[in-house]
Fold this sequence. Notes:
The structure holds 2 protein chains of 2 kinds.
Chain A: E1 2-5, E2 10-13, H1 14-31, H2 36-46, H3 50-74, H4 80-107, H5 110-142, E3 160-163, E4 168-171, H6 172-189, H7 194-204, H8 209-235, H9 240-261, H10 266-289, E5 296-303
Helix pairs in contact in A: 1-9, 2-3, 3-8, 3-9, 4-6, 4-8, 5-10, 6-8, 7-8
Chain B: H1 2-19, E1 22-28, E2 32-35, E3 42-52, E4 64-70, E5 73-84, E6 87-100, E7 103-107, H2 111-114, H3 117-122, E8 134-136, E9 139-141, H4 148-159, E10 163-166, E11 171-172, E12 177-184, E13 191-201, E14 204-217, H5 220-230, H6 232-253
Parallel strand pairs in B: 2-14, 7-10
Antiparallel strand pairs in B: 1-3, 3-12, 4-7, 4-13, 5-6, 6-8, 8-9, 11-12, 13-14
Helix pairs in contact in B: 5-6
Amino acid sequence: MQLYLPIADLPVNVFLVLAMGAAVGFVSGMFGIGGGFLMTPLLIFVGIAPAVAVASVASHIAASSFSGAISYWRRRAIDPALATVLLCGGVTGTALGVWTFTQLRALGQLDLMIALSYVVLLTTVGSLMFSEGLRAMMRTRRGTVPPRRTHNWIHGLPLKMRFKRSKIYLSVIPVVVVGIIIGFIGAIMGIGGGFILVPIMIYLLRVPTSTVIGTSMILTLVTMLVATMLHAMTNHLVDAVLALILMVGGVTGAQFGARAGQKIRGEQLRLLLGLLILAVGLRFAVELVLRPEDLFTIREIGVTG
Amino acid sequence: MIARAIIAALLMLLLGGAARAERLIVSVSNHRVTVTPNYSGEELVLFGSVERDAATPANRNAYDLVVTVLGPRADMVTRRKERKFGIWINTDYRQFLQVPSYLALFANRPFDQITSPEIARRQQIGLNNVLLTQRVGTDYADVVPDDAFRSAFIRLRTQRGLYREDPSAVTFLTPTLFRTGIPLPAEVPIGTYEVEIKLFANGALVTKTETAFEIVKVGFEQFVATSARQNGLAYGLVTAALALMCGWAASIVFRKD
């Protein structure tokens, strides 16, 4: 069944988009991530303009992180204080990101920046995760205990605050900075940023695993809602029809993915996720290096009359 | 200069004299095309006839016809990628000002057989002769047909089915009765389309006429597109609310306890 996407200006097959949503939802449910870093590239590879893909995926991630956040809230696995401090940075970062997005678009370098950020971010994070997963697997095989957590330089920063539910005593500066970074790249790349945020919170901020995913989902939810609003107001690029199909496919797929994920061991999951992220990053790199099929592109500035 | 003025004056006389001799009567099969969400392209039909009267030279009975369809005009930017630091990035660009978003040129035989290159250029017959104004620095001008940006622009629009030229699309059913199809692809721009029909005989323009049709999008998807552009705030709020509802519904449907 063909459906015309009003903003993407493109007819697409509903079932294809639904299947894409479900597949990404499955993966995101399995790894406990938003899946934006998979959804946006998939949409771009299908032929949807990168700008529209980024803006529309924001609302799709908001939907899936909201359903996740609800269930974490019920389990009291969200630290409200930590989430609030993160959000101060997150909302600022998102606004900066959307502003940068608009500027780059006017310069005609937006698609390039999206691709470049994907290459840099995904290959780095992907290889880190992959090697970390490999090391963890070796350790379990050898039966050695992972090294004890120690305090690092971040815990020497001023403006400390007590986060009760997470049971940590931490400076607000790194938390706000992390929020800004995640908000910024989220708005430009159309990702929730969970796959970067969770490791940062665990390894750098020492947030306990009991609250880390729920709290990061709150940040994802709010930054993506803000991104949706700002993209809709400034660039008019949010395709609600596309987003709705993705949401329906995504939340359904996520449920089955979550069940599948429980059957796989943690370090194997990380290894797989690292490979997946690496693969998407490399796919973008290849695209940039290979000579494009057409060196010319056209963009309409505005229809009159 | 003077020579050109004289030629122009002569031509005007010639045209003026000829315009009284033949008249074109045309109509399109549908003056208002509605694009629905499952629209996947369609074809309009333009048909008409050449009316002759007593003033028509008796020996003139072989006509040629050129149909030009012009969609709503828009500003467009063509960008060129170049290899820099090992990757392909947009470097140079040209702005095309108020160029038709849809452009089709149809005729009953190749343009160069219908008329001379001079008249073809003046009457903008053939994609190479249509005026596509570019902004080059502070200048506004069309450039030579083989300009890289111009030909890339036409090639890309042609690939999307939005620019086309077909010198065999017009068929004469009788020596004076003709028809042609106007294909409208799925991603056809909405707005008013002008159709110019030019009648040639022995290489000279005899008469011309114009008609128009309109393409409108209807239904939900057009509503979505319009509100996205005009009420960004409300649209964003609705989309955000939609996302929240979707997430909330999912958490209820798939609740385990």
